[in-house]
Amino acid sequence: MTVIRTRVAIVGAGPAGLLLSHLLADAGIESVIVDSRTREQIETTIRAGILEQGTVDLLVASGASTRVLTDGNRHDGIELRFAGEGHRIDFPSLTGRSVWLYPQHEVLKDLVATRLAAGQDLRFGVRVDAVDDAASDRPRVIGVDADGQRVEIEAEFVVGADGSRSVVRQTLGGSAAGSFREYPFAWFGILCEAPPSSEELIYSNSDAGFALISQRSSTVQRMYFQCDPEADPDALSEAQIWDELQARVPGTTLHEGPIFQRDVLRFRSFVAGELRRGRVALIGDAAHTVPPTGAKGMNLAVADVVLLDIALRALLLSGDEGPIDAFAETAARRIWKAQHFSWWMTSMLHRTPDASDFDRRRQLGELRSIIDSDAGRTYLAEAYTGWPFETRLG
Ligand code: PHB
Fold first, then answer.
1. Where is the FAD-binding domain (predicted)?
2. Quick check: pTM over 0.85?
3. Which of 98, 97, 78 is closest to 87 using CA atoms?
4. Ligand 1 atom 6: the closest Cα is on which residue?
């Protein structure tokens, strides 16, 4: 058996775990990160692509990524399309902020490289089975490494950054403990080789259902359309996929091209019942899941990290427990704002299978209320570009 001693044991090498280790290292706080996946799996899994202004500022200021500025693209607005017309929401004029299109796996490549260059103890292929002694000041992570050897990490604090199927969350309070809702639809996502069909993202509510036209580069595009959660991603031909997409963005002719990746993304909203117990905290998808419509997933993880970094510095450098005691309640405020925003964008833009004529017209009335009102556009722009991060806790 291998026994590792460190100050903070981080389970999960996703954006939340890696960024936390990076910020803690800056304060001289050592950590160990373990992840059940391989480095290649982590760096190639396709996820969403929108970073809030605050996320970008933090990645750059902390030295975690400069590529976001050179290889990412700043977007100053999105288009809401409904009833056959497009309406642009201009972020800088409404909020002074923007967002960046920079795929999550690129953020991960930057973070893994930065952490390894700094000598971070980062172990792939380690399956965590449990967290023991969470209530004591020496909690332990128990797992099995890539060679089948038992590993124990003894730390002063354990962080569950291990995604929506979090083992750390299960050891805290059972996997289902929390608030959640399911949705009667999912997204059919594609990556294709084609020039962009639009410079900015189009979120389209149409009679045929929702579509999102997003981008990746000048030659690769990402698009989604609303589908049944049970849909088989391989059941449609490329021609059928293009027909579905084209029907949902009336007014735009999409540039078509070979589709080289397809997936069905199920929707779920979830917040864990306990975000922290004793010397264990949950961050990122381990703590919450949002539907992808508001592009909040990774940004919310970064906001958790900002708070936990403040709390752990106070606890581990000064023995001050006030900030860690305030962590869960403070994190939950932003989490529930983001839950609301993600649910709202989702419900306003999708067609539910049983929608009546009243439901449909009310939904168009809601969209019109937003675009006709400076206050409505400003709310959407503030939430989409991201509320400012907290700078202190407790
Ligand atoms: C993406 O480009 O993958 C993307 C963008 C915006 C969203 C969701 C996904 O709301």
1. 5-341
2. yes
3. 78
4. 295
